[in-house]
Amino acid sequence: MKLPKPLARAAALLSSDARADRVVPPSGHTAWLTSFTAGAMTFLCVFALALSLASGRLASRWSDALARTATIRLSAPPEQMQAQTEAILALLATTPGVESARALTDEENRALLAPWFGADLPVEELPLPRLIEVTEADPGYDGEGLRQRLAAEAPGAVLDDHTRWRRPLAEAAGRLRLLGWLSIVLIGTAMAAMVTLAANASLAANAQVVRVLRLVGADDHYIARAFVRRFTLRAFAGAGAGALAGLIGIMILPRTDAAGGFLTGLGFSGAGWLLPFLLPPLAGAVAFFATRHAALSKLREFR
Amino acid sequence: MHGGERVIAFENAAYNYGGGELLSEVSLRLAPGSFHFLTGPSGSGKTTFLKLAYAELLPTAGHVTIFDREVRGLSRDEVARLRRRVGVVHQDVQFLDHLPLAANVQLPLTVSGRKSDARDLGDLLQWVGLAHLSDALPPSLSGGERQRAALARAVIMGPDVILADEPTGNVDWEMSLRLLTLLVELNRMGKTILVATHDLNLIRQAKNQVPARVLRISRRRIQLAGADL
Ligand SMILES: Nc1ncnc2c1ncn2[C@@H]1O[C@H](COP(=O)(O)OP(=O)(O)OP(=O)(O)O)[C@@H](O)[C@H]1O
Ligand SMILES: [Mg+2]
After folding, report:
1. What are the residues whose beta carbons fall under 8 Å from the beta carbon of B165, sequence distance 6 or more?
2. Where would one find coiled-coil regions in this protein (chain A) (predicted)?
3. What interface predicted TM-score (ipTM) does this complex get?
């Protein structure tokens, strides 16, 4: 199998040529800083990921609940019921933002009440309010204005748009998800910056080594490889530990479903649990490209 | 082996570090298999000349060609490949201090991805008299040992040219003669040799063994010195 050129290059840069690695002296405790940074960043990333996924679930659940319907409950003396119902329907027909409206039939009323009072309820004889289902258009109607017009037309009509309060919440959840993704991007960028700094420091500290390597005929890719390999492996290992710690952290969070279901629980569900395992290779890739870029541009300072 | 008429050629080349030209109008050719000395007072530009000869520096005027390649047109990778064909012993010999002597001597092979033959390495270390020190770390070596290790490293790739900058800089006369003998042997094997030195005794000694020519830097120019010396 033949790899495409950039991939083959990447593979060559990572290939376990122990000798290539040995030409740069081991860097002692500073090596830990890269692993630690990658670990801490990945730990944070797991939470940002969990936050994004959880708020995403929340946002979509709440948006689904916003079925864009409201109910008007009309109480009126029996002899006026029909007239007021028609008046309200006429009013709704001219209200901007209302897509459609219709009065529930007696059958539907009975179906609604059946669970409480049994199927053979004599709906017609009870002084039940008439229900009018309003389907909202996009953009929606002005709730306050509609209430006032209803009051003028039918004093016994009550507009119940209980699902409307959830809209800002659904929007907030969507924003939260966006912030989560943004955090992940920032964490990744910060890690790239940290690795670049560390790689540059390492190259500067090993200037003498680099000079000798150039003098004996090493090309830039050879020299870069020693550094790239090192930082990639360190970032990968650190990120592995960080991801594991983050996952454990998420798993021991108390379940919040019981607490009113307001928070769906900061966690992963189903295949989402696999996502944190993508973070270590991702961190390795970030370190790979950051170090490679840093090394190849720094090496130009040496002839 | 190189087939052309010149291994390294300077054509009206000049070099200027920024404070006026240090070397001017340098025109010369190193023919394959030749042996040259380069002398001149301290600070006259011997090291600078060698750096031009292995493309560490680019001439600020004129042309330098190595194996018929104009140095100015070389990419970084080409410079790297060229250095594998030119063995250099630097005036300030530098090693990778964390690797043992043997690994340092093999470094040119390592970085060019070539397999090294343990027996060849043993022979080479034997030849420079360092076989017993193959596991020693460079900082523990004496000046003369470092010079010989540098020479071994310079020749391990079987280069066509060997440029040596004060290879006897900090060794006693006996060791100087030994290093000279190594260089003469290399020349007899067909290598082109250029040795920068201010040690006139060494040059006289060499002239007894090989038809060496002497280049002298004086007043920014490089000239072929007369037979008198
Ligand atoms: N990187 C540099 N920048 C500026 N000036 C330099 C640089 N390298 C060398 N020089 C100057 O160039 C002149 C020649 O230096 P060079 O090292 O070539 O002399 P040399 O003949 O090898 O001397 P020595 O016999 O002491 O080794 C010196 O005056 C030196 O100070
Ligand atoms: Mg010098």
Report:
1. B46, B47, B50, B88, B89, B90, B91, B196
2. none
3. 0.88
